[in-house]
Amino acid sequence: DKGTLFGIGVTQTLSEPWYAFAAVTGGTGAFYLPNVRVTALLNRKLLPSRRLVVNAGGSYAKWKDAHNDRGLAAGALYYFESPLILEVGTNRNFSYPGNVQSQSYFVTAIEGRPGAHVLVVRASGGREAYQVLAPGQPIADFNSHSGSVTLRQWLTAKAGAVVGAEHYGNEFYQRNGFTLGAFWNLE
Q: What would the pLDDT profile of 58-99 be if each residue is shown by its tens digit?
């Protein structure tokens, strides 16, 4: 099955130690893409250096079949003096119908600086609550893992290209993907 996923996100500074992130995505075509997914995170900078950031948030997804997901997320980031950021976090998901619950964990390393390049390496694993393998063929409460590498390369002071690769696997199937895109800073 083929489809296209569209998304837009924004990060907004609320005050010196607080900032928020929100995103909306939606898919066309493929049965496995969400009709709509909304995500929001509230972040707080800690320590005198403001190098430690903790966050919490939530999400909602309505899928093309009869199920929907509600999620909670929590995590922490640490900004090292070199251009390196480490992030760890967890996601708790509640899927309906059936009130199936799951928990997953992730670790992310980010190297580089905006304006030059940013390399993101991410690994995650845990349990998933609900997934549709084909129209009318759902699976529930299973282990999965994923890994990805993404490079954002600035080509001008405000614009650049994004290239990435991803692997996902569970006991039912494996998936590999490739991303190619562009970005433009509106500020």
A: 999 998 888 899 999 999 999 999 899 999 999 999 988 888
